Amino acid sequence: MEPPLFxxxxxxAALRPPMRxxxxxxxxxxxxxxxxxxxxxxxxxxxxxxxxxxSVLLAAANxxxxxxxxxxxxxxxxxxxxxxxxxxxxSAGNWPEREALGLLPGYDWSADAADTSAAGTALVRDRxxxxxxxxxxxxxxxxxAPIHGTDGQVIGAIEISTPTDQPDxxxxxxxxxxxxAIEQSLAATAMNWQAESIxxxxxxxxxxxxxxxxxxxxxxxxxxxxxxxxxQGEPADMIAAAKRHAASxxxxxxxxRVLGGSHDRQLRRTDLLTLQQRAIAAAGLAGRVExxxxxxxxxxxxxxxxxLLCRALDNLLRQARENATRAGGAIAVRLQPLDDxxxxxxxxADAGAPPERRxxxxxxxxxxxxxxxxxxxxxxxxxxxxxxxGRFSGSPTGSRFEITLPRP
Length: 408
Hints:
Beta-Lactamase; elongated; six-stranded mixed β-sheet; alpha+beta; 2 domains; 9 helices; Heat Shock Protein 90
């Protein structure tokens, strides 16, 4: 299988020796300055856990490991994939000495491991790296490139290892191209998963609204009949409270119908600044979060479904509060105009760093397993993108959430 942007001419150049300048990678000789020999390999049970944790990365990378290996079929080689910690999780190739070289799943090729590797160095430097490792019976030329997840964090590396007597500068470009192809596969998988999850969320919302509508209508009728009895004292207070709760349930049903796509989006002109203040109060953050609004009074007026957008903002503020408590920081909110819309930024601020330079706390790689936080953000995405035609970005463990809404 070839990657989406595979350049056949550049790829086949990897099989030819350099024509002009010799390949001079960083070199780690086996002298006194070399790290001590010996490598660590994980026990089978621990490796199994690593493979399970890297299942999404493995699924995206496997086809690309295979086409790189096929391309290098005339050269002794091993194409390796590591996770973010430098643990080798998959390898392919035709080099018989792969076990002696430590190029089997489970070996630790991080920068802290005993032997030096391009993969471990690429993970630390976050850029493609070429190395020549000179070790008795284990010499090799290797080129590696880091792999980034959908949130921009390094989640692994791909490395191409060949004998030191067959170096080629094209291998570094090939490793970088393969890493880019894997990243594209991860992005496509994430987009497909999010689209399918939103579709299922819409189906669930529509079905739940349908199931709630009839019992709620009967409940409201019974409350109205009781209200006609003109009861006094505590019974009258209970009936009034029941009416309020029934009205709240009716709002939930209407919101579910909108999410399910069975009803009109019910957009109306709304003051965004006032709505944001209401969401802050609903999240229990009144007086603790300041809004940096850069909108003019006219720009503050947007077309939205106030109930649903307030719910989305409430969810993000609650998630930000949890992240701020864990990481130590204050929650900040900014409203700013764009050429084609309005941007709402909610981020965990520390040391005065503006949101443009806050790329997030340590974020987990993309996973198909949902927890409560991820389900909440999926609901936010559905409200922003499906109901309002906007865009949303952010992850549960991140420090920055962004909503972009179109102008009226």
